[in-house]
Structures
1.
Amino acid sequence: MNDAPRTYDVIVIGAGPVGENLAERARAAGLSAVIVESELVGGECSYWACMPSKALLRPALARADAKRLPGLSRAVQGPLDTAAVLARRDDFTSHWKDDGQQAWLTSVDVDLVRGHGRLDGPRQVAVATADGGTVRLAARHAVAVCTGTTAALPPMPGIADINPWTSRDATSAKKAPRRLAVVGGGVVAVEMATAWQALGSQVTLLVRGDSLLPKVEPFAGEMVADGLREAGVDVRFGTNVAFVERDGAHGEVRLGVEGGARVSADEVLFAIGRAPHTGDIGLETVGLKPGSWLPVDDTCQVTGVDGGWLYAAGDVNHRALLTHQGKYQARIAGAVIGARAKGEPVDETPWSPYVATADHAAVPQVVFTDPEVAAVGLSAAEAEQAGRRTTVVDYDLAQVAGASLYGDGYRGRARMVVDLDRGHLLGVTFVGPGVGELLHSATVAVAGEVPVDRLWHAVPAYPTISEVWLRLLEAYRG
Amino acid sequence: MNDAPRTYDVIVIGAGPVGENLAERARAAGLSAVIVESELVGGECSYWACMPSKALLRPALARADAKRLPGLSRAVQGPLDTAAVLARRDDFTSHWKDDGQQAWLTSVDVDLVRGHGRLDGPRQVAVATADGGTVRLAARHAVAVCTGTTAALPPMPGIADINPWTSRDATSAKKAPRRLAVVGGGVVAVEMATAWQALGSQVTLLVRGDSLLPKVEPFAGEMVADGLREAGVDVRFGTNVAFVERDGAHGEVRLGVEGGARVSADEVLFAIGRAPHTGDIGLETVGLKPGSWLPVDDTCQVTGVDGGWLYAAGDVNHRALLTHQGKYQARIAGAVIGARAKGEPVDETPWSPYVATADHAAVPQVVFTDPEVAAVGLSAAEAEQAGRRTTVVDYDLAQVAGASLYGDGYRGRARMVVDLDRGHLLGVTFVGPGVGELLHSATVAVAGEVPVDRLWHAVPAYPTISEVWLRLLEAYRG
């Protein structure tokens, strides 16, 4: 063991997409950087979240689209070839090997230390390596925590013994369980219910509340519930799971619901939320509480830590639990760290290159269900809570020619929230098949604060689903 | 025959989408309006262009998408059910009946006169009706010509005798010809080649020049040519058709190509361009040349006509031969006519509600081929011709995670043209499967003149194809 620490300008803990991008941006600013990772370089997104989940979902959604098209529908009535879908998923996760990601780090000249990184006082990180040793690192300028989150499990007696699925199992499973119970009503729950139902499981979705996707416009969750039911998912609201038991490690799972109902399944996925991955990263050595989210300012600097050397980007700061938004923060934090290291001024006014303004105003999200949900900015309720004077405009996507051409029986809805004082949009939500790529038009409009008067000159091509923009503007004009 | 003319504030000649929208906007401004139509209310777009062509293409593109997805691909190797696709197309054209459109006119309180409308001196229109009569109309404020275009045929001896297909036949045919020759290399040619090849025809595409889609970025035409060839279309460049002959009215067609080659087919589609539908609308009575395009200013007022009472919107003014852009002009012209009738000021500065600025800066177009082509604003060549100081940024869409998830072997490309002096985008082009709905993001950015610095805050959702925006910005940053 070498007691003299290796010194870098920047130390990044966690080599998911966020950590990778932050390190790369720090390097681009001329700083030396090292990244610490205890698992696979590439992180949750590459191996157990975005990539595998979308690889599972894409054929399911393409089949749902094809089913709505006379002339093609008859050919796709049969089930998906599950083995082929899983094999493709395996390719997208690089078979859970990180050689490619490691090579990328090398290509951008960021050092990698494999092992469990813990803060060890200001600007110090101790990495416990697999061989039982410790690598000590010291940062001249900054340490950035990019450790993300882990799946939360309910505090239920015996839950650890029943081998529950979390998002990791749901995205990496090697075969479809005959019966899958999914506990939760958020994005992971609805996406995985969609995927495994299409891949051959009989899915039961157990939702504690009375709606799905509670963070977006209410009609989104309603339409997704309809879609899940039509795909064959047994969707049950108001079901609070009281206990769970299993016959042996891999036998039948039985869930007991408050009120007495019982659900049997071959696997159970708990998708009830995320917990910050900060329980064992030495937060206590710098005066922070282990297991807590790390609050940051708009430059991604952790608040409440002396010396301004600690940053946190991505899920762990709890601003927006989305890979793309974490990468956005990473680009900004990397630039901030670079500028501050060189003593350059850091413009902290909104929308400057050094502040993550979009975290407040324009966080986009696509939920890859059937129908898809695509939302950016504030919902109507959020805008009202924020005290904005708004008009909320809705439009039935089925009335748009491009949507009805997209597939027979098209159902969807669009909403835009107009800020009456500022004259631009605060938020936009689209629900419907094929709306995922439409979202970025809204993201540009919201983040760009494009005046509604100007949006009239942004003509949607006919006949695309995008024509809903014209309909929304016409409805707003009223 | 009643010699006293019926007087309206506004007379619109041509009840396609453009005429309909213009009349509706004039009504909304408080003016009385009448619309004259000799064919079906709803126009080319509804019956012989956008709607039927996209109804033919959508199943073909959905099948192409499905073929690129392991787990689904095996199911869709067979041909489309052509009869089912054609039946769906028939539904989208309302079986070539215009009751619904007529009812819409009634609902917005616009009168309809069926018959052939001709200008008859300033502010006068004479409509020759089917019963041999004439309805005389007089306009208090404006006459708007919205007669669109017709398919151009080459000046070739005997062409009228061989029953050639034009876009109308190609979109309304009741069965797939065994062999279809398509002459042309523009949008109609490549879309109809795509559709009919997928519907069972063996298509030969005869292109006079050496590229397809000459009006957009060159790589678009190249990728579409590759896609057509892979679908089985025989694409031949540099083929100038010298003569055409046919055995009887419906026998085999033989085309002779300069240089000696012969092509045999069961039908031949000429898609070589459009001609203004102004040959017999009385232009000579107001000092204009029959058969000419009608040049307009940015308020859509025809230039060179005394009194400022004549407007032209849509294809016929030759600004942008696209339904959605014509409707945009119609909204503007209707508002202009309304304001001028009331003596209200008409702001003619760029991007005002009264000028069609987007016609110069931000015309979007989607070509529904495999791959799709989606472009808005200026191409690199157009920007250079316009003397702008630009940087052109390209990105390979296959490198975008969302694109590779969309389908195996994804091929596509994106380009953005940055105005270095203004700091915003002049044009964007996407080519690839599934990019159609992505276009509106670019249209908002270009029409909104959103600064590139701000576009960094418009975060694309991961993993969508839209992430190409981030890659383009990164490539621009360099």
2.
Amino acid sequence: MPSGSNLIGSKSSREGSITFRSFDPGNFRELPIEFFEATNEEIEQACQLADFAAKDLRFISKNKISQFLRSVKSELVSSKDEILSYYTLESGLSEERGNLEFARTTNLLEDYAEFISSPDFCVNEREVGEPTLVKTSFGIGPVVVFGASNFPLAYSTVGGDTVSAWVAQCPVIVKSHPMHAGTSELVGNAIQRAVKQSGMPEGIFSLVNGKSHQVGEKLVQHPLVRAVGFTGSHKGGRALFDLASKRKEPIPVFAEMGSVNPVILMDASPEKLVDQARKLSESISNDAGQFCTKPGIIFVPEQHLAFFYIELQNRLKEAPSFLMIHPEIQKRYMERVDEVAKANNGEQWRYRSSNHPLSAVISVTAVSMSKFQANLTFHEEVFGPHVLLVGYASENELTNTLKLLGGQLTISIFCSDFNKLKQMSFMSVIPGMAGRIILNGVPTGVRVCKASNHGGPYPASTDSRFTAVGFDSWKRFSREIAFQNFPMESTREMFNENPLG
Amino acid sequence: MPSGSNLIGSKSSREGSITFRSFDPGNFRELPIEFFEATNEEIEQACQLADFAAKDLRFISKNKISQFLRSVKSELVSSKDEILSYYTLESGLSEERGNLEFARTTNLLEDYAEFISSPDFCVNEREVGEPTLVKTSFGIGPVVVFGASNFPLAYSTVGGDTVSAWVAQCPVIVKSHPMHAGTSELVGNAIQRAVKQSGMPEGIFSLVNGKSHQVGEKLVQHPLVRAVGFTGSHKGGRALFDLASKRKEPIPVFAEMGSVNPVILMDASPEKLVDQARKLSESISNDAGQFCTKPGIIFVPEQHLAFFYIELQNRLKEAPSFLMIHPEIQKRYMERVDEVAKANNGEQWRYRSSNHPLSAVISVTAVSMSKFQANLTFHEEVFGPHVLLVGYASENELTNTLKLLGGQLTISIFCSDFNKLKQMSFMSVIPGMAGRIILNGVPTGVRVCKASNHGGPYPASTDSRFTAVGFDSWKRFSREIAFQNFPMESTREMFNENPLG
């Protein structure tokens, strides 16, 4: 069971007086454990330990980092039952989803452990001559990672941000998401054991709690912190970006802030549309649509809009019942759904398959192109199981409408005639708009590999030049140093095999 | 001869009413040509043309970009005499330096042309499976480049920033440096001819003039501009960074803002010290020390400080006479030199080898470690031929003092015993401080290759994760897109051979 403590290096610590509790969605009640918000002193200690560890980590070999990642994996596995039972308790997500997310997390650790000890992981450039230069990667320094509300494992305490920062040889201070602080602590305990076993400097990992914004703000403003990873709302991500940019020494913030993930349907045949409605309904409703890559807007040929609208409703009614993760998320979702309905003169389809107070209200809003173009509320994300259908009359109308949208994580196109697709004028627009472009598939489900890209032009992320998912995500937390005229053998010895190996 | 026009795409344009003139340092007079500050309309046109070109450039092959770079080179060569004569006129830099800088520029174009058509230039990742992903690089969009005062060719109109943005397939709008707007225009004319000959979209290059800050500010705030490259002062770079961060859609600014480039001397033998004084005196005085990599602080073992101080003076007195580039730069230099002298109770060595009003006053200030530690004015750059000597009593004192300094472009160490160096405690500090670490060499002279790194922790640059010099510098202006389940052959055809080749 969690104790409600902050984890500062190798210690548990609860010095503060402000406490909060997490919530059990399934039983719609607060959980008994009190979590202690980190004090200024605890934050200071975590930052000092991280700064100290950052220096040590520069001289640690990739093989040792590999061993550490595997040790974290094995400690997670040994606590799997405890972690997963608290995960389902605090999130209301199913055991099945918990198992998937757990596997995603341990796979990430294993895949990265393998990747960084392989020759593919080339971090050196060497140019002999006058002068001889060797360029090599170093960690940027202490990284603050904010746990995501919707992924208590895979994008939280030991998710993509934390693991990629470790791969870059940076220490990490995790700010736990208050909605699943208990899951975070249990995961954190496993990490603490792995740190000890692998002989890593204790400052490589700390975990601090906070329900107020103050803890996060203090971390982002702390002079020893060198970078930030965040997954969440636009409001939250932008606030952290602004804080970091105003520092005396500005630091990079990679914030992945969600997206409406436009989907374009181009096929006319009813069989295709039926199949697409099925695929998209699953992508919209699964885990109550609480994904940054959930399809938010579907552009449908005008003459098929009515058919697709009904077909989609039929499929969504067959979806299993899912809970929203927290009453706060449910509240914000319903506010947005109401806003969208209001902008459409109240016209909106809603469906709720259970009477559980957190049961997700699935909803679909069909709007005309002119209404869509005129009202910005339609262009913004609705986080949860809502989708907007927009009919389009012509290719040009669609192209011009896409130009009105901001940056996106993904754009999906369903089109069975690739030669036709190539001729579409919007194909010159979408590369400027999105980080991933999908043909005949749904945007949910992000593969973790070397070719992954998860990010996109603002406001999908704060920096479209980096990815939050996949093997390249470590580059967010890495800088390079050129060594000029250094003797190779001795330098290798000095910096261990890592930097100059 | 320059006409004083802005170059907006393929046109020359001078619609404004505000004008300024550049200066002839050699004859200490204003030059007759009036340069027209770009109007809001001209800026708008340049941005619109660039946005249009950005879309086209996504579908242009690397081979065509290669051809374009070679065409720019050949047009520069055909105007070489005209460009170089205006270069020496406007900058006061020697013909020899002009030839070096010209060669650096044409080599850059040639090297990049070769690099991007070689297999080394890998911009694709492909991962077959479920789903198949191909990740490929695209230009981030229109890039604004600010010409640097101290490099009228190699870091201005067609310098490292512009060429690397083109390599990333981005259009460029150059804001000419007002001190050499004429050289910029002549270079710009050559580029315009190359654009036409290569069949590039005209918006791939525009050049706007402005002596006030307003032109640059408008460019950085323009919604169609997607990134900024800047080389210059901390004040200027930070102002642009702040403007860009406050935008509705923030954009990346890579500002290289100079550095004090600490040098550490460790050898005791007089012969070594004499040799080091010779090397460093050239690095300090060459072209009046107007380089971002000029050595600004030399840490000398306390017992050798007096000897080295005298030896350095003797060498500096033998240096050729150089002019400051502009009265403004001279004024700011003398103000800083006075500040440093004042902080040292007036004690400072100065030397001037000519009576020319812009002749550089070389100066050396020797300060005690305690004074150095206590006064921040000693920690900041003096742009021009000044160097600070600081005596150190012990390794620990040096290590602790280095920790007080901000991020640096370079740190140089003169030490003939590498085994001794490896044991030094400051070797754990300097990797966190600098972008390039040099053994037994001076920091001036930046090699352009794959292993180059020119940047560093703030305030050396605004983003230590990127380099302003070398083949990797294009990454500042590039983002990636993952294509999911696209048929390879057809996509290759659609996006030409570049993105998916």
